[in-house]
């Protein structure tokens, strides 16, 4: 009930002059340090009101949550734990979805189920998520347990695709088995709470050691993108983040959505680390309700030069075809339509009859550019005419670019939220590496800094020990690129140069300035982010044009205490 009421509280606060989205603060610290803090919050209620105001569900979704107590069979006798179950369901099966999963060799059972769903390529309609237990390498058949839970959700909701249209996700203790029986008993309560108003209850329900929920929103192509994430420890993704679920009502072809999501994950979640440990359960899923067919975005897109599909050579100049060519094209489209489902914006592997969609008269995005590559004249269209039923929007179209930019924004902001919410975190480092010969080397340099225990502890103590940063960079490059010329390498903290031409540039005044910059970025250990500032570090290798920004957290005694007592 609180989650449903919060948006209205936020609106009232705005009307009476309060700012539910937090305070925008001036720069703090040294003058040369630049703006450290942007948006800030003074209380948990203010932060949650801000999130709730942005948490409205995209059209075509329902969300429900519930919690229950149980006794883990692997734990000591008398141990009681609480688990939350979250169900996210679309109004109809969707062919517009994508996922990126962990690459950990000892992955959880839900990851194995998710990989099977990706390989099958069937429409997706629901997600079922639990915290407390990750269902990894337990003494039971974890895959069967996850499948049973998916089947229970599908049966209770009457999903036409059955269990195959449900993806599970679990997070929590590794080695314990899912309490399938108690979960099945609690499932009706989760389904009874399904509502169309807000994603905020799910953002809170999926938490484990997180101090506060994380939710981000963006608008694109006449629709919306809303994402939630959890994660505070065991975080150095090699795919996405611990758990992240993004909902949208924008209908994007699955191949294009997968391409966009993979790229967004690689530049956001894969460029973030809290403790250098990759999770066994990392899951990132994007699901579209396919309500918004991008008609408005398509109308705004500039005219597209269409190549003849039978052309086997490189790009050619384009001229308007004659009326006879258009006539032949139209005739061919009628002749080929029954066997060419991608013309109607659907992937060839999953043709859907027009009668099955209540909005077939609304233009949809077609397949990726790879699906439109030249085919033999005997089976190819002579031209793809633009008609209301088949609007051609290739990968370079403005609509896809707009959606991709919005999705990348949501992923980047959630990645920053996860880093800021790290277990025991009091500072977030933002390492901007440029002048590198390759993107991977730039990312490696950034991660070498944020994963260095010596750097992390120095930052925790507000100590601008630049020597530790230089040492971490040099250690990595000595292994990854031993012959690299570093004569032009330069480094700065908070905008102030501290290293250049192989020598430090330090003084008592510089030390005081750097320390002030780090202190300005310090967070309070409370159940909300006090601000969104960073310890800004820039490293210019001076040998190339590639760059990468990596986020990381400091290392405090609280991190040790949390993980020492994690299972208890």
Write structural notes for this entry.
The protein is of the alpha+beta class and 568 residues long. Helices cover 32% and strands 20% of the residues. The protein contains 15 helices and 18 strands. The protein has helices at residues 2-15, 44-53, 109-120, 142-157, 180-192, 200-205, 254-267, 295-300, 323-336, 398-420, 439-450, 453-460, 466-480, 508-520, 557-564, and strands spanning 23-24, 39-40, 61-70, 81-94, 97-101, 124-130, 166-170, 214-220, 223-230, 243-250, 272-273, 283-292, 428-436, 490-493, 496-500, 503-504, 535-540, 546-553. The chain has a seven-stranded mixed beta sheet with strand order 11-18-13-17-14-15-16. The chain has a five-stranded mixed beta sheet with strand order 5-12-10-9-8, with helices on both faces. Helix 3 crosses helix 4, helix 4 (142-157) runs parallel beside helix 5 (180-192) and helix 7 packs parallel to helix 10. The longest helix is centred in the last third of the chain and has 23 residues, at 398-420. It is globular and about 70 Å long. Residues 7-36, 233-241 and 295-395 have low confidence and may be disordered.
